[in-house]
Amino acid sequence: MTTLSETFSVCPACLKRIRAAYVKKGDSVYLEKECEEHGRFSCLVSVAASDYENWKANTVNVKPKEILRRSEKGCPHDCGPCENHLQTACCVLIDVTDRCDQNCAVCFASASPDKKKEPNISEIRQKYEELIRMSEARKFNIQISGGEPTVRDDLPEIVKMAKDMGFEYVQLNTNGKKIGADEEYAHTLKQAGVDAVFMQFDGMDDAVYLNLRNEELLETKKKAVENCRKARIPVALVPTIVRGVNDLEIGGIIKYMLENTDVVKGIHFQPVSFIGKYPGGFGDEQRFTMFDTINEIERQTDGAISKDDLLPISTGHPLCCFYATFLKQDDGSISCTSAGKRNSDCGDEASCGDGDESCCDEDESCGNGDETCCDGNGSCGDEGESCCGGGETCCGESESGEEEPCCPPDIEIITKDRDYVLNKWKMAGDVSEDGFDAFLNKIRENNFTLTGMAFQDAASLDTERLRRCRVQVLGDNGNLIPFCAYNLTDLSGKYLRRTSSR
Question: What gap in Å lies between CA 7 and CA 350, rounded to an integer?
Fold first, then answer.
């Protein structure tokens, strides 16, 4: 067994903060930890150690505008963000209800039809006002979530209020049932200002939905996509991937997207995390990792999409997400349009300086190889000295004693980060004439994005990832809480931070 790096995590039984380490055992990588009271725990990170070891990114982090609380117990118990948090949010979720018109076997929020808790419209306005106050650069991107937001009759009013208050991007997270049942409702959401629909979409076989959602939903999902097409709302399909349930559906979901790229602008894969409501505990027999997802995308598309096309994100933490952009050609082939390849440069949005210089050397490091690579400006400190020159540490140490990434880049990277989300799901415009606009619309109609987010549970939680989280939830107390900390549950299903009417 070889220790690759150290961090902090939690005990799955009591959620106590404990030390943890990424270790290589045989050909695989695990996160290992031990609680004095409840014993040792091991969580699969990657079946192939080479996938983990090659997954490198020179991420940049920009601290939040303000500290909302002081750390006393340590991450994840003090997320707020505290003074140790390193990354401001790109997207902020607002839960508008605990109610849901489904009763799924898998649910972050443990939502169900009998839940009652939800903020009133005035309280939601206060949440928007708090986010305006806390935003750096332009305002946060908003994700309206729950429960199932469409069970609220005033959802269009909630969306319109956000747009009227200046939020440029408002995303609706939904199971798609109401949109699928009511074409006019899709038009109402469009008029209110919904910029994109992130729709639960687990596979191309109703057996999958019966297993995960307790009802047959495939035709409802397809009808929802069609109604969004008519209303001109771009859709991202969001599959929760569970080993042995729908891990073989990845290729079919991609094929469906390729048949509908005018409206389905991408897929946001979510490998299963055992938080909230999920039967079966934390066993690796159903755990499907981010690296499993990447490998299956390549395998199930017969190499049309290469695993090397899929890149770590350039902000946040590289173990949290992957992304790539593509263009479907007239002959049906697929071209990757993301800037860079894995381990050859930093990918889309992650160049240093003015873009003329290379962000990373062959060792993915600066100076003598002991330091993390340059930030988005290619320099450290206030004097503009060269990054990591001479082997000095630029920005202190992490919780585990390892060096931090170099000093934060200019705040413009936050605007760029949020604008990337704003723009990547857009549909083509209506252009009836020939010319450059028609060409751009054809590109827009045939491009798509593949992303994936490996949410953490009590077995897989790494506090270094939480400290760099870019997807956060506005809690009832006005604090911004990393998504995985907000939804974290112990072995019995008890939440650490989320308040629920379960």
Answer: 25
